[in-house]
Design goal:
Layout (H helix, E strand, L loop, with lengths): L18 H11 L5 H6 L3 H16 L5 H14 L3 H13 L4 H6 L12 H16 L4 H10 L2 H23 L5
Helix pairs in contact: 1-3, 3-9, 4-5, 4-7, 4-9, 7-8, 7-9
């Protein structure tokens, strides 16, 4: 794999037709347009849909923020998306995940004892969805016992969405 990003980055403000998409990204992402979104802006429709989907996953679900961030971190580790791991490390901290647990995500499942039952469940689901795609019934039964139907959809969508993110980052060699 080369060391440069595999698509040109779109400089925010450089294309008049992107103003609405950029404004939406800025509104949801705290004012800046990160390198991931600069790559996505090569396709305005993808950038817009991506932002709507990921905003829903990040900010509009009932999944506790600490579980969401553990999921994101584990997906990043499995898929070798160091950019994503580094981006979410401080987010996980702000969500209340200890440094010890954040670092422990790298060693999962050997670090299982660091995590409580909900965290173990989220990490088990993430492991199966990311590595194997299929989720064994015994794992899904635990997920359905812990979450209502809305929560099941949201936790599964979180794993799926961040697999999309990490695979996009890795394929396009977005590392900084």
């Amino acid at each position: 794999m080369g060391t440069s990003i595999r698509v040109p980055l779109v400089e925010p403000g450089s294309i008049a037709g992107l103003a609405d998409v950029e404004a939406s990204i800025r509104a949801e992402r705290g004012g800046e347009i990160a390198v991931l979104y600069q790559a996505l802006l090569n396709s305005p429709s993808i950038a817009s849909g991506w932002e709507k989907m990921l905003t829903a996953v990040r900010n509009r679900t009932s999944i506790p923020a600490d579980l969401r961030e553990l999921i994101i971190l584990r997906v990043a580790v499995i898929n070798r998306a160091e950019f994503e791991f580094n981006a979410h490390y401080p987010v996980a901290h702000r969500a209340g995940v200890s440094t010890h647990k954040i670092d422990g995500v790298r060693g999962w499942p050997e670090t299982r004892d660091l995590f409580n039952a909900d965290e173990q469940l989220a990490l088990d689901l993430t492991e199966h969805m990311t590595r194997n795609i299929d989720v064994p019934d015994h794992i899904m039964d635990r997920v359905k016992a812990r979450f209502d139907a809305c929560g099941v959809v949201e936790v599964v969508a979180t794993v799926a969405a961040y697999n999309m993110v990490s695979r996009f980052l890795v394929a396009l060699n977005i590392t900084h």
